[in-house]
Amino acid sequence: MNNSILNIEIQEYIRNNINSNISDLLLKGVPFNDIDPKVIIEQLEAKQRSKKKLPTWFETENIYYSNKLNIEQTSSEITANYKANLAHGKSLIDLTGGFGIDTFYFSKRLEHVTHCEINTELSNIAKHNFEVLEATNIECLNTNGIDALKQTDKPFDWIYVDPSRRDDNKRKVFLLSDCTPNVKTFQGLFLKYAKRVMVKTSPLLDIKATLKDLKFVKELHVIAVNNEVKELLWILERDFENTVSVKTINIQKEKTQTFEYNIKEEQLTEAELREPLAYLYEPNVAILKAGAFNVISTKLKLQKLHKHSHLYTSKELIEFPGRRFKIVKELPFNKKAFTKENISKANVATRNFPLSVSDIRKKLKLKDGGNTYLFFTTDKRHSKVILVCAKA
């Protein structure tokens, strides 16, 4: 951590050039001779990347930023706040503290939070920023989180861990057993020191496989922001033996879409299949990632178009955690039938269909956009159909 970065002149330079092109600044040169220009540029670039993801940090003076990779890997404030609202009690230890976004939000909910970070520079950066942000109930330990647990004799209400998804060569890994620390190996240790453990994993992780790897899973939270899955959150509780509760969350600007069920409900449910009715429903990505393909149909009293299409229909319009459409017309999938409709511009989506969106656009000479929505899918009779829709 280079404290010269915090000099008034350098901080002012960063603020004044926050919207500047990095390449242009490098060509022009940085007007400071006593510090490596690359260090200033790295701070500027990291701050630029934080504007939407970390607005509190972006808007606070004298924040010291870590490198671009740390900023990319860290939780957003939106998801950190969601996680913090799940925690209760007095104490939490963050075993993989990193830049400290999650730790900071946990500190708003619990009396005492411990931030563990093995990288000395990153640990110092987080500690500095916590002081700037006036988070006085955070203790920073420059150590491996596993070692910190083994060296303490006190229990915690919560353990939080966000395993690193990079190997020794900085390549991405996705299997839980390939991440550091290996939660599969250390979950027994975690549950020895805390009754509840919160594990953040990649949204690409296979849910069924992970449920076999982890013990005592009480809840799975599938968290999406603006219909993009950001993370999977696993809540482990010591000696919990009941059915796993699944909570899907799609956080949007106007409202948050939620849908909850338990694993057994999905396993024991079979959706009723039916031809398209008056309205069409497309689940958000959190529901699709969770695999709630049948239970959403029975819980919301909807019918499904096909076992593998994951599109739903009803006679009356209902509230739904996803997109809703009025079905204007159903067409068979052939060029002649479609040409008669004189549709030259539309939003195209496919579900359980052999052609890609780009292939369809090329085949039917369709431009993107407009107020018409076309769903290319397979119905209960296994026929390929086009549903012409408008937003409901």
Folded structure, characterized:
With about 400 residues, the chain is an alpha/beta fold. It folds into three domains: about 5-65, Arc Repressor Mutant, subunit A (Orthogonal Bundle), CATH 1.10.10; about 75-240, Rossmann fold, CATH 3.40.50; about 270-390. About 30% of the residues lie in helices and about 30% in strands. It has 16 helices and 16 strands. The strands form two sheets. Strands 3-2-1-4-5-7-6-8-9 form a nine-stranded mixed beta sheet, sandwiched between helices. It has a seven-stranded mixed beta sheet with strand order 11-12-10-13-16-15-14. Strand 8 and strand 9 form a beta hairpin. Helix 6 runs parallel beside helix 7. The longest helix is centred in the first third of the chain and has 17 residues, at about 35-55.
- What fraction, in percent, of the residue positions are helical? 25-40%
Distance between the termini: 53 Å
The CATH superfamily name of the largest domain is: Vaccinia Virus protein VP39
Large-scale geometry: globular
Computed CA radius of gyration, to the nearest angstrom: 25 Å
Major pleated sheet: 9 strands, mixed
Strand order in the sheet with the most strands: 3-2-1-4-5-7-6-8-9
Number of domain modules? 3
Tell me the quaternary state: single chain
Overall pLDDT confidence: 93
How many helices? The count is 16
Features:
transferase; PG_1098_Fer; alpha/beta; seven-stranded mixed β-sheet; Arc Repressor Mutant, subunit A; SAM-dependent_MTases_sf; 32% helix; methyltransferase; nine-stranded mixed β-sheet; Rossmann fold; 3 domains; 392 residues; 16 helices; globular
